[in-house]
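User: Some background: our group keeps a shared notebook of sequences we're curious about, and every so often someone picks one and asks for a predicted structure to add to the entry. Today it's my turn. The entry only has the sequence so far, pasted here. Could you supply the structure so I can complete it?
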Amino acid sequence: MAPIRMMYLGLAIWGAIHPMYYFVTWFQTNSWDLMAMVDAWHVNAATSGLVWDLTIAALALTLWIMSEVAIRRNWSALVAIPATFCIGVSCGLPLYLFLRSRPVQ
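Assistant: Of course. Here's the predicted structure to add to the notebook entry:
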């Protein structure tokens, strides 16, 4: 495996584990209430800005993935879309780059 692919995979794993630690910690403290987490994301202008920044990035990544999958027919790359929305852009983007950079057969 090429070194860059290993770096993408490492970043995808880190991007899945590191944010999840904070999400799980928050949920354990706040009784697994998803709406309370959404409220916490909008507690001030700075956090609302970050939420919208990541939402727009996630939508742009999704459009990119879908357009490239339509051309390349690399259907396995679609797994990066749920990873982006269920975990975050920090996992979805490097995961997609890992899947996209595999050798062409």
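Suggested note for the entry: The mean pLDDT is 94. The chain is about 80% helix and 0% strand.
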